[in-house]
């Protein structure tokens, strides 16, 4: 929830983007983020991002599903109201496998999707600043955080030298907020765009 | 640096020398245009069918299931036939998205979005049948394990009919999540391109505020991989559980262990045929032939001939075992299937499912669009007859000859079935108008390895010798300061 100043560079080719990211990181500038229209493999390593642990969360949710199913059904059939169904044993684990499996998958899928949305900070109603109108189309956009001591002209020249097609300075909200995408935000008036 | 090399033998998956912007343009502009006349005609016709379905179902609920043709001993007729038919169709979407993702098949990207949408709509249609065939639908909540004042009386967890409830609900939910999570980045594209206020607001909400940061994509891919891994056994289990509705009984023709693989193969078979039906029309009308290429349709036809052959082998196995078992009930059931009062249904099934898909061994026919379309309809007709034959020809003559009867559907059952077509196509027309029919982000991902122009560019590399190639890559990487990726020593 903070309005910051960013230097934005837009590249049109992944093969130019990768060396550019490397140079920017080596030069000491802080990369806020890189926005791409599709998943670019190797970019997260290039940016030094950790591997995600989302699959571990998925596994734990699945385990909850299994325990819920087996626990609940076995309590009903052995404790609460055991019924004689065609002479079958009360603890009929083989018969419960389909439901147990389904609940495992259900809990894992729903839990993992909700966790992914929570971690990525996405939800209906969430609004974020879009740095370049073509970042979801065909441009790879890198946003660098600037502070009061940065020489803007230097940064822009440096980014241009790495091969960016489009460079500019933007003042924008760094995080997310609840808002409508068709309305303009107050901070947009701060930009000369 | 794209070190991933795709063989020249493989056809390009994206024709026409596209770049990323053109992909967005081609796939999203139909959404931004006003709908054409064909869309209105199709949509209104679907809504009319749906209305007739609503009327038929209301009639059935109000007057009771006595208005249907089901009677003793044929407890299930068109209702469960249609249920299994729709669920079977739904399985192709998950298979294309999930199993082909795990097998790293790039060609899934042209067809997966439409196929997954088809799955969700098919499961919605399928779910109507178990609900409305209850008769006393107002007591329908009894199947749910909720605490109640009737004991508390719990549902029968040992029964496949209840396993179905869990399986179908889970399948619907997981398919919906998989489909929607893939749609989020594409909705963000439409949102960013949107010029009108309403479209920007609506797609802004639909896109969940997605912006496409590297970490976001990393998590999205992890989710897609795990959902694919979960969905694959889910597909197999759901139709297996549906087959258990029959296989766990004691009726000749139903009580057989071949049903789980037979049903799953049949589901994939009919599902791929329905995907073909939809895509042949969609690609023509939306001008997406360069993304849903003949190669894609051919690949699906290959799967159709494979699964059709499995289904054919299953039919022959059933016939053989009915004789080999020397069980008089089993032998009688199959003799009547071939020669009894329902022989016409059995032979329709055999012709459509066993004989006709074999034509897809011929390459020219596999790549022929009108033939593919006609064949996809024939396959689905055949699969409908398969479920009809299984259900009705095993129940209309069971243990006591004095109870033998005959089943004919009444108009509310036919209306119900037509209504589900209405529901399916209404949803599909809305999907084709408001959502990208092809997975934009995924196509962009494979463009540089499988696009037409990029594959042509690989010709130079193709003609290099191994030493030359390694030398070029090695030097190129050192210049850029990358780590050398597994370059063999000279």
* CATH arch. level architecture of the largest domain in chain A: 2-Layer Sandwich
Rg value of chain B: 25 Å
Q: How far apart are the termini of chain A?
A: 22 Å
At the fourth CATH level, what is the homologous superfamily of chain B? Formate dehydrogenase/DMSO reductase domain
- Tally the helices of chain B: 18
Point out poorly predicted stretches of chain A. none
- Number of extended strands of chain B: 0
How would you state the average pLDDT of chain B, rounded?
91
Span between termini of chain B: 22 Å
Order of helices and strands of chain B: HHHHHHHHHHHHHHHHHH
| N to C succession of SSEs of chain A | EHEHHHEEHEE
Level-1 CATH class name of the largest domain in chain A:
Alpha Beta
CATH topology of the largest domain in chain A: Alpha-Beta Plaits
- Averaged pLDDT of chain A: 93
Largest sheet of chain A: 4 strands, antiparallel
* Quaternary state of the chains: heterodimer
- Overall number of strands of chain A: 6
Which range does the strand content of chain A fall in?
Answer: 15-25%
Structural class of chain A: alpha+beta
Q: Care to describe what's here?
A:
The complex is a heterodimer of chains A (193) and B (490). Chain A is an alpha+beta fold and 193 residues long. Helices cover 43% and strands 19% of the residues of chain A. Chain B has one domain: Formate dehydrogenase/DMSO reductase fold (Up-down Bundle), CATH 1.20.1630. Chain B is built from 18 helices and no strands. The chains are: A alpha+beta (193), B mainly alpha (490). Chains A and B meet through α1, β2, α3, α4 and β3 of A and α1, α5, α6, α7 and α15 of B.
């Amino acid at each position: 929830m903070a309005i910051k100043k960013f230097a934005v560079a837009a590249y049109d080719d992944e093969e130019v983007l990768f060396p550019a990211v490397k140079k920017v990181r080596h030069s000491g500038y802080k990369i806020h983020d890189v926005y791409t229209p599709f998943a670019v493999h190797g970019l997260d390593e290039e940016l030094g991002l950790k591997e995600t642990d989302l699959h571990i969360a998925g596994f734990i949710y699945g385990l909850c599903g299994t325990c819920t199913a087996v626990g609940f059904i076995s309590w009903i059939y052995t404790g609460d109201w055991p019924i004689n169904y065609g002479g079958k044993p009360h603890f009929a684990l083989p018969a419960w496998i389909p439901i147990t499996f389904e609940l495992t998958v259900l809990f894992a899928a729903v839990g993992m999707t909700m966790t992914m949305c929570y971690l990525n900070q996405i939800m209906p109603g969430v609004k974020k600043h879009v740095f370049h109108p073509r970042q979801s189309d065909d441009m790879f956009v890198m946003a660098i955080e600037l502070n009061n001591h940065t020489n803007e002209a230097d940064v822009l020249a440096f980014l241009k030298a790495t091969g960016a097609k489009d460079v500019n300075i933007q003042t924008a909200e760094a995080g997310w907020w609840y808002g409508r995408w068709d309305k303009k935000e107050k901070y947009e008036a701060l930009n000369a765009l | 640096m794209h070190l991933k090399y795709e063989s020249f033998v493989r056809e390009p998956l994206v024709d026409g020398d596209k770049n990323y912007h053109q992909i967005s343009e081609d796939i999203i502009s139909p959404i931004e245009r006003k709908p054409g006349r064909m869309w209105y005609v199709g949509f209104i016709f679907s809504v009319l069918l749906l209305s007739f379905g609503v009327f038929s179902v209301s009639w059935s609920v109000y007057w009771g299931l006595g208005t249907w043709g089901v009677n003793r001993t044929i407890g299930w007729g068109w209702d469960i036939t249609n249920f299994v038919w729709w669920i079977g169709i739904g399985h192709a979407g998950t298979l294309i998205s999930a199993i082909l993702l795990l097998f790293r098949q790039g060609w899934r990207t042209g067809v997966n979005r439409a196929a997954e949408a088809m799955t969700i709509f098919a499961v919605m249609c399928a779910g109507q049948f178990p609900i409305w065939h209850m008769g006393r639908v107002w007591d329908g909540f009894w199947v749910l394990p909720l605490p109640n004042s009737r004991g508390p009386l719990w549902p029968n967890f040992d029964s496949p009919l209840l396993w179905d409830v869990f399986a179908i609900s889970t399948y619907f939910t997981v398919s919906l999540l998989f489909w929607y999570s893939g749609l989020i980045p594409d909705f963000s594209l439409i949102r960013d391109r949107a010029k009108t206020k309403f479209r920007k607001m609506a797609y802004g909400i639909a896109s969940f505020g997605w912006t496409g940061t590297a970490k976001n994509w990393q998590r999205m891919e992890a989710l897609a991989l795990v959902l694919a891994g979960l969905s694959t056994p889910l597909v197999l289990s759901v139709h297996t559980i549906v087959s258990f509705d029959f296989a766990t009984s004691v009726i000749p023709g139903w009580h057989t262990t071949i049903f789980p693989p037979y049903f799953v193969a049949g589901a994939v078979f009919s599902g791929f045929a329905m995907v073909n039906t939809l895509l042949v029309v969609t690609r023509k009308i939306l001008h997406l032939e360069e993304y849903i290429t003949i190669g894609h349709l051919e690949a699906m036809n290959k799967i159709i001939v494979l699964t059709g052959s499995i289904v054919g082998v299953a039919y022959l196995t059933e016939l053989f075992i009915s004789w080999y078992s020397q069980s008089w009930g089993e032998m009688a059931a199959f003799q009547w299937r071939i020669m009894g009062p329902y022989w016409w249904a059995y032979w329709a099934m055999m012709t459509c499912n066993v004989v006709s898909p074999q034509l897809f061994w011929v390459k020219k026919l596999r790549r022929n669009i009108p033939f593919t379309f006609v064949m996809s309809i024939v396959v689905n007709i055949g699969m409908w007859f398969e479920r009809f034959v299984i259900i009705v020809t095993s129940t209309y003559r069971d243990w006591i000859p004095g109870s033998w009867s005959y089943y004919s559907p009444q108009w509310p059952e036919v209306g119900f079935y037509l209504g589900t077509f209405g529901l399916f196509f209404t949803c599909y027309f809305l999907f084709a108008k408001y959502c990208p029919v092809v997975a934009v982000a995924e196509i962009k991902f494979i463009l540089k390895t499988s696009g037409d122009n990029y594959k042509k560019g690989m010709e130079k590399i193709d003609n290099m010798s191994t030493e030359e190639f390694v030398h070029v890559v090695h030097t190129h990487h050192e210049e850029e300061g990358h780590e050398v990726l597994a370059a063999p020593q000279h």
